[in-house]
Structure formats: structure tokens, C-alpha cells
Amino acid sequence: MPAPISIIIPTLDAATELPSCMSSLLPGLSEGLVREVLIVDGGSEDDTCRLAKASGARIFTQQTRGRGPQMNIGANAARGDWLLFLHADTALSADWAERAAAHIYEHADKAAAFTLAFKSDARMARIVANRANWRARVLGLPYGDQGLLISKPLFTALGGFPDTPFMEDVAFIRRLRSNQLRILASEARTSAAKYEQTGWRKRSWHNLFLLLRFLLGAKPENLARRYR
């Protein structure tokens, strides 16, 4: 029986973070869960594609940037029965394969995200992550930084990611019913660079403000300009 998971990673100038992301996938390869890794690049000018090729990933390139369209390209090309969407600056904890396998075999009708953590020892990193995990569990609104594990039939039935420049992850997750999403105990450890550059509190409240505006109907195009 073929390994069930196709891992889809949208990239753009991700050479610094991609090796850590790819290395974290090794437990899934050892457990026979990972069928393939698909890198969908949006026009990188660094060594992203070279590193991806050296790792054995399937590489797709497109000139139109945007995680939503990039991830849809990967999903359409995927050969696995399950899709794992992962950001290039996120690395999964070593127990991810065990948790993912249990989800696949016990909750085939549901999607799953991982528990958020940051690649930082700062006290505020834990506070911000705890808030995000509370939102994910109670409100059912994880961000794309937490990864998304979903069967290909369910992904297709929900219509894929919207072609928007921002909040494509939240827009897609909201199509799921409240009982169709689980948060796995293993961690998705994501980059803290933007928080460290602008300040943990400032960035955290800024992101929350943008999320609320999106939920109230603001256009993703306008929010994308504010996010930068």
C-alpha cells in the first residue's frame, strides 16, 4: 500500500528555513507515511529550488505569488490520499508522524492542525503561542503556521484554497464544520522573526486586529498591505 501523505510546501526565498522544515519530515519517512514532498515555488531568487531538488522533492514553479494558488497547484499534483500543507519556516516536532498516523486511521473524516510553538526562548513566545492554541481549539481557527493535514477528497469537496493574497488559511478552515477539525498534540515550530523584529505584543495585537477585520468582511487584498 503506498504511503498516504503528500506534503505540500509553498516557498518564496525560503533557503534559510527550508532545510529545518525538510529535516523535520524524516520521522514520517521512517514510518512509511510520506509518499512525496512537493515544493511549489513562487519565483525564488535564492537557493530554495536547488535545496529542494537536492532533497528529492518534486518541484513546481509559478510566477504568480500567493500561498493559496501555490498550495492548490501542489494539491492538484499530489498522488497521496492525504495532504499535509506546511509553511517553509515551520518545523514539526519529532512525534508528528505518530500523531498524524493516529489521526488518519481513527479520524479519516476530519482535518487536523498541529499545536503552535515558536522557534524562540522568549517568554512572550510561549504566551503568544498559548493564545493562538486557545483560539485554535476553542474557536476552530488555527493559522497556516500550524500546518493542515486533510484527506484529498475532503480538500477537494471544500473547493481548495481561495485565490487571495492573505488569510487563505483562515478562509479555508472556516469552510469546515466545527466537528471536522482536530488539533494534534505534536508541535509545529514556526519562525519568530516578524515578532522579534516588530515586538511580540505589537505583532500579536496587529495580527489579531487583521483577523477580526477579515472576519468582519474586509477584503484580503487590503489586509495584505497592512500585514507587511
Report on the architecture of this protein:
This protein is α/β, with parallel strands linked by helices. The protein has a single domain (5-193), classed as Spore Coat Polysaccharide Biosynthesis Protein SpsA, Chain A (Alpha-Beta Complex), CATH 3.90.550. The chain is 43% helix and 21% strand. The chain has 11 helices and 8 strands. The strands form 2 sheets. The chain has a 5-stranded mixed β-sheet with strand order 3-2-1-4-7, with helices on both faces. The chain has a 3-stranded mixed β-sheet with strand order 5-8-6. Helix 10 (200-215) runs antiparallel to helix 11 (220-227). The N and C termini lie far apart (44 Å). The mean pLDDT is 94.
List the defining traits of the structure above.
single chain; 228 residues; alpha/beta; Spore Coat Polysaccharide Biosynthesis Protein SpsA, Chain A; 5-stranded mixed sheet; 43% helix; 21% strand; globular
